[in-house]
Amino acid sequence: MRAVVFERYGEAAEVREVADPRPAEHGVVVRVAATGLCRSDWHGWQGHDPDITLPHVPGHELAGVVEAVGPRVTGWRPGDRVTVPFVCACGTCPACAAGQQQVCERQTQPGFTHWGSFAQYVALDHADVNLVAVPDGMSFATAASLGCRFATAFRAVVQQGRVAAGEWVAVHGCGGVGLSAVMIAAAAGARVVAVDVAPGALDLARKFGAVHCVDATRTADPAQAVRELTAGGAHLSLDALGSPATCAASVNGLRRRGRHVQVGLLPSADGTTPVPMARALALELELLGSHGMAAHAYPEMLGLVCAGVLRPDLLVTATIPLDAAPDALAAMGTPAASGAGVTVIEPWS
Ligand SMILES: [Zn+2]
Ligand SMILES: [Zn+2]
């Protein structure tokens, strides 16, 4: 098969022929119809993810058709249209037994712990736990955009963030996850303030339901801007980018007893990020993490997508062939990429 491979961190990836994957006993191989390009892929390529070993094939937001099935898989057959959460769970550890597969103790992640979906085929583990059927009528490009950013945003806003109609919700960083969060919060009846450094990203945020936009390059203190626009601060605020600055701005933009949800990855040399804990204490803030979404939680989100309440298809702004993926991966590191919407790779086009 053809795949996007990199041999060294930060050096240009290339498209080349590699061996086709084979399914594990409990796994499947999926023929990849569409796979989203995500900032997490860029972080992995830069060497920020300790799970990756070289050479490596990125890609974790995929949809396609089951090609081959391991002997212990009972629920899926070749020809099934499927997608998958980026956190693939083991199905048997204590977290999985409690229904919290998104924080599985033995999780695998295509494109991180093993070769991913910037390829014509990808192997996925524990298929009976992790595969999600793509509804009839939903395109593979739309389904691919659910697997990471949209599902992640859905869990962050609805489940971890407990959004309620009429609340103020601030979204810091309007890339794929942030724009998804804007749309999901607005659909829930919240009033959304979007914050970004890219005018194009803010234009999209407004289109997807933000009532106020803050250009972080034009204000000395985005958190103060959020507090002023929301008469005292947001009830719920997300750092959808993942940086010390956006994390702090999200916490500092909350009102009393507000909820901060960390969605963006926070890679750093020593693995820690400063958080304004004095404000968390004084205002009784809640600080929450959100990490993907379990396969069994997809039906609520898929129902809203099929009903047209949520429109992840609108987030897909570009579709490219595999040969264009290495350059597109490199471009994810620039701030301008956050204003460009979601790029989907079609490995067979
Ligand atoms: Zn598990
Ligand atoms: Zn992703």
UniProtKB/TrEMBL annotation:
Tell me the enzyme class. oxidoreductase
Pathway-wise, it operates in: Metabolic intermediate biosynthesis; 2-deoxystreptamine biosynthesis; 2-deoxystreptamine from D-glucose 6-phosphate: step 3/4
Q: SMART domains, from UniProt?
A: PKS_ER
- Reaction catalysed by this chain? 2-deoxy-scyllo-inosamine + NADP(+) = 3-amino-2,3-dideoxy-scyllo-inosose + NADPH + H(+); 2-deoxy-scyllo-inosamine + NAD(+) = 3-amino-2,3-dideoxy-scyllo-inosose + NADH + H(+)
What does this protein need as cofactor?
Zn(2+)
Classification via CDD domains: Zn_ADH6
State the EC number(s).
1.1.1.329
Which domain of life does this protein belong to? Bacteria
Gene Ontology MF terms: oxidoreductase activity; zinc ion binding
Record-annotated Enoyl reductase (ER) domain positions: 10-343
- Keywords of the record: Metal-binding, Oxidoreductase, Zinc
Pfam families annotated for this entry? ADH_N, ADH_zinc_N
Which family would the database say this protein is a member of?
Answer: Belongs to the zinc-containing alcohol dehydrogenase family. DOIA dehydrogenase subfamily.
Q: What does this protein do?
A: Catalyzes the oxidation of 2-deoxy-scyllo-inosamine (DOIA) with NAD(+) or NADP(+), forming 3-amino-2,3-dideoxy-scyllo-inosose (amino-DOI).
Full protein name: 2-deoxy-scyllo-inosamine dehydrogenase
What is the scientific name of the source organism? Streptomyces adustus
Q: What is the lineage of its organism?
A: Bacteria, Bacillati, Actinomycetota, Actinomycetes, Kitasatosporales
